[in-house]
Amino acid sequence: MTDNERYIDVWNNCLSIISGVIEPQPFKTWFTRIRPVSLVNNQLTVEVPSDFFREYLEETYLDVIKATLYRVIGKDARLVYVVRPVQGQKPMTFPLGSGAAPTNKEITIKTSGDIPNPFVYPGVAKIQVNPRLNPDYSFDNLVKGDCNRLALSAGENIAAAPGKTPFNPLFIFGGPGLGKTHIAQAIGLSIKQAFPDKVVLYVTGSEFKTQYMDAVNVRNKLTDFLAYYMRIDVLIVDDIQDLVGPGNQTAFFNVFNHLHQHGKQLILTSDRAPVELQNFEARLLSRFKWGLSVELLHPDYETRLAMLKARAYREGVQVGDDVLEYLAARIKTNFRELEGSLISLTARATMARQDLTVQLAEQVIGNIVGDEVNSVSIDKVQNMVCEYFNITHDALVSKSRKRQIVQARQISMYLCRKLIANCSLSAIGTETGGKDHATVLHACSTVSDLMSTDRIFRKYVNDIEGMLAPRQ
Description:
This protein is of the alpha/beta class. Helices cover 51% and strands 11% of the residues. It is globular.
């Protein structure tokens, strides 16, 4: 039997091996649709439905396919793909050339109406894509301050020309309650208002992951699912850090590449910088850094006060300046806690029929923010380190390379990273003499290594951490 006569048997043997390696559902989705074409000189040619199908196979299953071909054909095995023409659709006919014999070329296309919407379930009438944007999250309802000025400026530029600015993707990161979702959705709302025909979609990282799993394991609609996402003009993915897992990251990688290459806009948010994301593929992280990464910082007093005044105005409640100033001075963490304190205060006053006073605010706020004396901040860590090593704060944040200063500086960065929730590397570096996040990472790694090998050094760190522990 010649190679050309046994190619079907060879491919069936390959399928038999592959089916025992990967899960049944992915096998059915990706391998039963491949057709063997020929086998010549250990080169197996197979037919696949589309270029995307081929790319996904190579990205996800290349190692499995190579190992299987070596086992069935031998070490000289090669695999060649040909793309199967799309069948069963009415072709469009276009005349070619001028002055030549009348010749027609048939081009098969797939319309957007053929692409299923993953938000529409079987048996439910299909609807137009809902951008899933909250109208309250507009630019008008945002207060601009030093904490978010760069992100807002970039967002306004994107809204005026989506996909045509250097800010693609726009990667917004920061702690909870700092306005990441608000800014991302404000961009989407502004785009939808200026460009009604653009397809805008807001989705969270966990929702994308769930939809991917559903498409693969339940309805076997992964190709349709990915094709749908590739039709989006502006894709907003909130909490991208939740997109863990090799399968859904591969899917999102392909979606990202397609949209970016076609000039579509991507907006991503995360609770940490790209460099701090764990369990993410390097190729995906590199793409997150293509555009602009911008951090949202904790709002300063003026911004907090302006936000409270704006929210009170929108809610239609009259709150005295002394009460708003108390709230702005007392709550320093984020916008969400500020808004929550104002809502709790007005609700308490309304239900108890009391006046909105500073005294009432003190009672309400105590249940929200707790005792500030026991909280840990960057300043508190740095001051404790300085006291322990008997050095000045200026020396700690300086560029001095003296061993004692460097050691104290690294310990302070390590403890800030360990003890302060949602404290980013860049925030720690900024407060430590303008160091970058790479320096902070190196410091944390150095301290961790020394603690495991140097008993005296470990005592230093444990002593300071014990002094910083909240008092009971």
